[in-house]
Amino acid sequence: MIEPQHPALSVSRQCALIGISRSAWYGLRKEESSLNLALMKLIDAQFLETPFYGSRQMARHLRNQGYSVGRKRVRRLMAKMGLRAVYQRPRTTAPHPEHRKRPYLLRGMVIDRPNQVWCADITYIPMQRGFLYLVAIMDWATRRVLSWRLSNTMDVEFCIEALEDAIQRHGLPKIFNSDQGSQFTSPRFTQLLLDATVKISMDGRGRWMDNVMIERLWRSLKYECVYLNAFETGSAARAGIGRWIDFYNTARPHTALGGRTPVEAHAGPGLKAAA
């Protein structure tokens, strides 16, 4: 679908028109061995069940599954996947001096209307012969996925593209909540929100419950779509994930939304959801 020599449209513009990041155009991440890819898929599935597992416990789990694997290997793979155990840890590394952390603003807040709070997160997407990363932006009160992008790198570009797309299509939130990942603390990302006078909220370190709405989305997406399909290509992953997100937004009723779908809730009166 991409024509590198198109006379009028740049590669970046073509990628934006079909809803992928420019980096995703270059293909899947394939540098890991088939064994490491299999281990990463097992780690990903287990982490959904036990997000408090660090590299030591995850290595024990894999050994119990019959794999001869050491903690250092598991630690490296978890870092590549962007997984961090949720327990509180000593602060052993200094953050980038330009990457300012923000306080968590949602504690005790009643979130009961669309565009009051948006949340965002990145997750690892295992493939048959590689892997990608997925970022999604969700409306907290209605659970609607407002925008998403796939990328083969963890750079900030695909997160910025998703944010710009969500703003263009749905307006602006009052508060934007994310974790403290370098993509969301990047000055390029936060400046977009600050310029639009959006308040920035960030989870406490190791507190996955601070962004629980989107964590629930990842669990449903992976068990109902990603793990069942074992996508071979980036385009197949984008099509399959796109179909599932359309189903989630438009056809899947939520008890917490009074039996409505996220799109119906987003268009109608808000409902109370305590953060």
The main pleated sheet reads as: 5 strands, mixed
The CATH topology label of the largest domain is Nucleotidyltransferase, domain 5
Q: So how many helices?
A: 10
Helix and strand composition category: alpha/beta
> Could you give the order of the helices and strands?
HHHHEEEEHEHHEHHHE
Q: Care to count the β-strands?
A: 7
* CATH superfamily heading of the largest domain: Ribonuclease H-like superfamily/Ribonuclease H
**Which CATH class of the largest domain is shown?**
Alpha Beta
Strand content: 5-15%
Helix content: 40-55%
- Rg, alpha carbons: 19 Å
Describe the structure.
The chain is an alpha/beta fold and 275 residues long. It has 2 domains: 11-81, no CATH class; 110-274, Ribonuclease H-like superfamily/Ribonuclease H (Nucleotidyltransferase, domain 5). It is 41% helix and 14% strand. It has helices at residues 11-18, 34-49, 55-64, 71-81, 157-170, 182-185, 187-195, 212-229, 234-250, 262-267; strands at residues 110-111, 117-126, 131-139, 145-151, 175-178, 199-202, 273-274. It has a 5-stranded mixed sheet, sandwiched between helices. The protein is globular and about 50 Å long. The protein starts with 10 loop residues before the first helix and ends with a strand.
Write the topology of this structure.
Blueprint: H1 11-18, H2 34-49, H3 55-64, H4 71-81, E1 110-111, E2 117-126, E3 131-139, E4 145-151, H5 157-170, E5 175-178, H6 182-185, H7 187-195, E6 199-202, H8 212-229, H9 234-250, H10 262-267, E7 273-274
Parallel strand pairs: 2-5, 5-6
Antiparallel strand pairs: 1-7, 2-3, 3-4
